[in-house]
Amino acid sequence: MYDTIVGVVKTFQIAIDGPVAAGKGTTAKLVAQRLGFLYVDTGAMYRSLTLYSQRAGVVLTDEAAVVGLLQKDKPHVDLRVPSESERDGRLCTVLLNGEDVSWKVRTEEVSRGVSIITQYAGVRDMITPLARKIAETQDVVMEGRDITSVVLPRADMLIYMDAQPMERAIRRHRELLMRGEDVTLDQVHADLVERDERDSHRQIAPLKKVPGAWILDTTGMTIDQVADKIVERVNEKRSQEN
Fold first, then answer.
1. pTM (2 decimals)?
2. CATH for 13-241?
């Protein structure tokens, strides 16, 4: 559609936030496919910087060391639609300095680290402008933990996806077992609860439900059912605007 004020193409932006294992990533990918939108995985961008920092041996709780390393080395992170040979269940292909790290950034070690470095303003400053620029040029579905509050607060649709903690833990545990990781459900649940607490109380861009957001509880729902609900509401909104 076109912006009648400035005469330029106006993109349609769907912003999705929510805690770990709420189903944001897979749902966002399905919604993007069904609507013909670009799926932007900002979490994968942060995970890539986490992996880079871990490989460099810096202590992630040392903000100055992490930010200093990333500002000095400027690791290049890129996202693309998976090629035919890369269709192994990934949501997108993640490249770190040209290396395919799509699955390497999904380990529990990286998951624990990413919620630490996303608290650092210097790290967020590297990601947020890039994500916004993408959304200004294409219709997007973007998910993360501060998309509705910080990155795209004026998105056409703001969604907060959630589910009961134990259901999210079961989902996450199943996912990790399929990847061959040896971890118990109790440990996954404990890590999930701890991460929820940390993400909700961090000083910079805490996970929160912004005013006007659609609170979508996915407990007991399949990914297809969640995607269908979102696509239906998007189509209704777009038809009303036209």
1. 0.74
2. 3.40.50.300
